[in-house]
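[Q] Does anyone have a clean structure-token version of this?
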Amino acid sequence: MFLLLIFFSCSEKTADKNSDSKTEEIISIGLSDIGGQSGYYRVVKATKDSIHFETGETLTKNHKEWHAAIKPEDWKNIISSFKIKNLDRIESSPSIQPIDGIDESFQIKTNKKSHVYVNAQNDIHYRQFANFKQQILKILPKEYQ
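[A] Here you go.
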């Protein structure tokens, strides 16, 4: 009986070490552009399995939506834009919605952490976001670009 207890307690510690050593990877990425007098919005969310896109204006009650499964190579291209080690260094800028601007927000979730950035265009790491936007344009149908 005593040996069984020792065996189970050792195997649990090994399992805990394995889960801690798992490398950080991106689970989902979101992009939203929201603001302006007409209530403009564009929202993209990509995961390993799918991509979802919405756009419209609240003033005109115009709304379009599209979603599809995502190919593994497209997901690889999307996440290859980001350097996970740089995500903690990226800085947001103040919102410009109050002066009738459109705020650009990115939401990046990893298996260990969530990151949110608003108007990070002035950050030296913004190229990652620009590359992500280019990869998304390659996936979206022409009528949604």
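[Q] Thanks! Anything notable?
[A] DSSP finds three helices and six strands in the chain.
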